[in-house]
Design brief:
The protein is α/β, with parallel strands linked by helices and 501 residues long. The chain has 2 domains: 229 residues, P-loop containing nucleotide triphosphate hydrolases (Rossmann fold), CATH 3.40.50.300; 224 residues, Class I glutamine amidotransferase (GATase) domain (Rossmann fold, 3-Layer(aba) Sandwich). It contains 17 helices and 26 strands. Strands 2-9-1-10-11-12 form a 6-stranded parallel sheet, with helices on both faces. It has a 6-stranded mixed sheet with strand order 15-13-16-18-26-25. A hairpin with a 7-residue loop joins strand 19 and strand 20. Helix 1 packs parallel to helix 2, helix 1 packs across helix 16 and helix 6 runs parallel beside helix 8. The radius of gyration is 23 Å and the shape is globular. The relative contact order is 0.12. The mean pLDDT is 92.
Length: 501
Amino acid sequence: MAKGLMIQGTASNAGKSILTAALCRIFKQDGYRVAPFKSQNMALNSYVTADGLELGRAQAVQAEAAGLPPDVRMNPVLLKPTGDTGSQVIIMGKPVGNLTAREYYATKKDIIPKVREVYESLSADNDIIVIEGAGSPAEINLREDDFVNMGMAKIARAPVLLVGDIDKGGVFASLYGTCAIIEPDERDIIRGLIINKFRGDVEILRPGLKMLEDLCKKPVVGIVPFARFDIEDEDSVSARVETHDKSGGEIDIAVIRLPRISNFTDFNPLERIENVAVRYVRHVRELGNPDMIIIPGSKNTMDDLFWLRTGGIEDAIKQYAADGKPVFGVCGGYQMMGRSISDPFGTEHGGEMEGMGLLPVDTVFREEKTTVQVAGRFGKIDGMFAPLSGIEFQGYEIHMGESEAAGGASLTRVTRGGSETADGAWRDNCAGTYVHGIFDSGRAASAFASILAKRRGLEPVAEAVDSAAYKEQQYDLLADVVRGALDMDMVYEIVEKGLEG
């Protein structure tokens, strides 16, 4: 069985996911078979495995860092929020229903044996498992039947490194407070502290580190500097969406910041293209006059369409399209652009809605969820999107709805399970698709940017770097920074001794 090492944080966004990815890469570089694991993830960004199962996007990223194909065993429980008090619950890659928080917590005791079984299965195939916690172990109201933080550490017999984010302020109090409020046996499981996102002179920090070690009776394993890595974000509350505004680009792309935006990592490849700015906008006043509007995926298409409608953004998008400017939709955004959306089984909240009418498409939500990897190519397209014709891509689909395009207006041809079918739709300056990751092909991303550049009288965009090669560079850069910041001899000693040391 593999040795386990768990990364927990003093709060959400302390850096657990990125440090887990870094350690996966470091252990891989050092010759170990290593895999990530997160027993329960709550996120709207997800990924589909080769066998059509869904897991959190963060674990797919960590798997890539470890040099492995994403495996649903790396994230047995995924919660995808559908509103403020409920989530779609996905167990071992398959949805089991929409539950309120209270309903879900009533089932936790029944989930623990499955989590243990899955962890042991993954552990049998590897030398080291890097386990990521969720939120904070100091959320003492959630201690009963916990299988996410200290409960998972006990299941895996894994020592814990506790991470605090100094960039937010209060890192000494948060690290000490976490150690102080948890149970004594849980405190013993913590074998080291990490301060993350540090800016400045480490020497100025040293007196505080000594006091922290004395108070917590734990060594500080490392001070990780604040650094920017272009590695995919975990969820919809990511700072990338909240604050990201790549200024200075001559080509301006506005992505609508839907309340339930999902899989916004689709647009990361566009951000990497020189002179392209990608903005996430929530209000009409922020929209301006971009070169293209993108309506992204949504975990609740009908609610998010209602939000667009009541906030005036829908009218602004429709006027923008009527002026002959490009609008592109992905998954839920594609559904919204159609003529109608019907929910006969109450998948979201039932009933029917009129769509935006930008595409000749009608969507019906089904009881079964489509989760599949696809390969495809853009079809024969006329007009504004003609340069996309014939370009190949790979991606994946995650959706409950089935959409039918009238009049043979399909955008792409995709291969699912060995058979080729039509996908998406286009009409004049509007287009949409179900395929996530459609921009990951360097050729597809640069073709989109070149269409916009031509409309501005600019030179065509050079072919973008292929996403897979680019991500490999970023994982290596991340590993270099984290390896240099941590006492890796101490980390390896903690891993080797486990909870027996």
